[in-house]
Each structure stands twice: as C-alpha cells, then as structure tokens.
Amino acid sequence: MGKTYDSLGGLMKSLFGRRSAIVTVAIAAALVLSGCSKSVNDSAGGASGDCGSWAIAMHAWGGYTASAQVVTEVAKQELGCTITQTTLDEGPTTYDAMEAGTIDVIIEDWGGGRWKDWTDRGAVVEAGENGNIGIIGMYVAPWMVEKYPDITDSKNLNKYASLFKTADSGGKGAWFEGPAGYTTIGEKMVAANKLNFKVIFSGSEAALVDGFLNAEKNKTPFIGYAWQPWTLHSKLPTLEAARVKFPANDWSKPEEASGLTDYPSTPLIKLISKKLNDANNPFTSLVKNFKWTNADQNGVAADLESGMTAEEAAKKWIAANTATVNSWLGK
Q1: For 288-317, what is the mean pLDDT?
Q2: What's the pLDDT score for residue 39?
Q3: Helices (H), 23-154
Q4: Which domain holds residue 313?
Q5: Edge to edge, what strands does the sheet with 36-39 contain?
Q6: What percent of the chain lies above the pLDDT cut of 90?
Q7: What's the domain count of the chain?
C-alpha cells in the first residue's frame, strides 16, 4: 500500500458502477492467501475481550487506508480483536473473497450497488453508510470566490472565461480535467452549456494538485476537476466552497449525461461478510456504527501523505476524537 492516490482513476470509475471481470470464489481465495496480508496486532493494548479474528480488505487509495486503520486500531485496543489487513483489487475480486470466507470488511465502497449479485446470494451484507460522501465536480481556485463571489454559479462562467486563458487554450478559458481514465463529463458540460472554455486533460493527479496549489499561492485563475474525499481539501480548507454549481444532477451513468447538469453525490457504503454479520459481536457493532466525515478522512490521509505511518495517523485521530469513537462502541 503506497501513500499516494495513483489508483483514484479506478476509484472514480467505480463511482459509476465500473465492473471488473468476475473471478471465481476459488481464485479469490487463492488471491487472498497469496496476496499482501499482514497482521496488525503486535501492539495491541490492554483490551480484555476476545472478539475473534477478522480480515479487512485494503484498497489502494489513501482515504481507504485512513478509514480501515482507524477501525483496526479501535478494534485492537478497545475490543481485543485480532485484525488482518489484506490488499486486494476493489470490486468483484474482494466480494468473491468475502463469499469464500477470507475477507470480512470493506470499509468504503464507491460501487453504487455493483455488489448486488453477492448480497442477493447472502454472501455479502450491506453495513450502512460510512459517512463519507463521494463527490466529483469542477472547482475554481478558492481565492477567486472571495474576489468574484458569483463565479461558482455555472451561468456566470462565460463572464470570467477570459481570466482563465493560457498559452494552450486557444483564446478560450482553460478547463483542466482529470487525467485520462478518470470518469468525467467535462467535454459534455462545456458543449451543452456553451461555455467559452477549452478542455485540457491533466497528465496526472499531481498536475491537478500543483495547479490548484500554485493558483492559490500566486492568486492566478484556475478551474479544475476535483473530488471528495481528497487530501487536497486539507491543504485548501476552503476548496469545497469553490465548487462550481451546475443544475442538480439528473443522471447516474456518464454515457447518459446531457452535460447540462452536475455530477452525482454518492454516499459511500460499508460491506461485511455473512460470517461477521452472523457473529453479531462487538466488532460487528463497531463496523456497523463506524461513521465519520470527509474532513475526518482527509485529515488522517493528509497525515499519511506527510510521512506518518498508518498506525500513527490513526492513533492521533482517535486520541483527538474520543466522543466519536465512544459512539461507535456504544458507550
């Protein structure tokens, strides 16, 4: 597990129901056994209970790591659980592993119901929303909102288009999209709303981050593709207020979008194995009760990016948020 968000292209596609090739239960079990698994219980504290041994799937983006590690630390320290973290591809590969009995928890799934075949069979159980809301949108540099308060209304973008011109935008405003492979309807938005902008695809997530940070530092105009949860919001705390508002979303699949309306917002879901659901023990309750905000996740993920270990970052957040943790534990 790295500390970057290199796989967020896949994550964004998952928001709109991307389906991976389905593997058999036997293959999924083999993947778990041969994949990257680790026990995280060497430093378990003084919890006297024994809630059993459970496996949390680990998916390859920093926000997921933040959520999974916080749940892991609470389970270890407060409930005496033995927790294994196993790195797997998101989606069907992990669902098959849950059906095989080798994975028990997905703490954050963007799939929008792609797990239905598994829940219909009773192999996987929905455990509620985790509190994070998946959001995609177009954002301006936050300093621009203070200077041009009406700029976040999409109807006013053409009024300011000339501010966004660059050497590569052909006399129009530069509209910076996510890298190739990210789910985007930017070209449709520009065309349908008759915006005087040229769509420019960023070469990487890092290029988007640099674009926003440099624009804010130097007070230069910038409009770009961004999402929540994302650690950029920790670096630019007022970024969400700089989201450009298009008419309310009326689509769920990008190919159906007219471009006139905004991206959907998606509550992120927790999934658990039938085994964990049937156990109905304190760890089951912890996972079902776990809920935090985008800001919570962004803060822990930012600590990961700054060089903290996952355990250090999780323990820091837990120590500062005892009331929230106690609510998960039913205290």
Answers
A1: 96
A2: 63
A3: 25-34, 62-79, 92-100, 116-120, 142-147
A4: 8-133+267-328
A5: 36-39, 82-87, 53-58, 105-109, 265-273, 124-140, 223-228, 173-177, 197-201
A6: 76
A7: 2
The type of residue at 278 is D
Residue 239: left (phi > 0), alpha (psi -120 to 50), or beta? Answer: alpha
* Unique residue bearing structure tokens 């996740």: 297
CB-count burial class (<10 Å; 0-12, 13-18, 19+) for 20:
middle
- Decide: 212 and 178 in contact? Cβ < 8 Å: no
Distance CA 85, CA 197 (A): 45
Residues 275 and 255 in one domain: no
Tens of pLDDT, residue by residue over 11-48, are 444 443 332 222 333 333 333 443 456 666 543 344 44
My answer on whether 224 and 186 are in the same domain is yes
Task: Give the range with max mean pLDDT: 33-37, 39-43, 100-104, 204-208.
Answer: 100-104
Element holding 206 (H helix, E strand) = helix 205-218
Residue 3: inside a domain: no
Does residue 102 contact residue 33 with C-beta atoms inside 8 Å?
Answer: yes
268-289 exposure pattern, b = at least 16 Cβ within 10 A, e = fewer = bbbbbbbbbbebebbbbebbbe
Asked if 125 and 16 sit in the same domain, the reply is yes
Handedness of CA 243, 174, 136, 107 (dihedral sign): negative
The tally of CA atoms less than 13 A away on the side-chain side of residue 79 is 25
**Entry pTM:** 0.78
The last residue of a domain, from among 246, 265, 284? 265
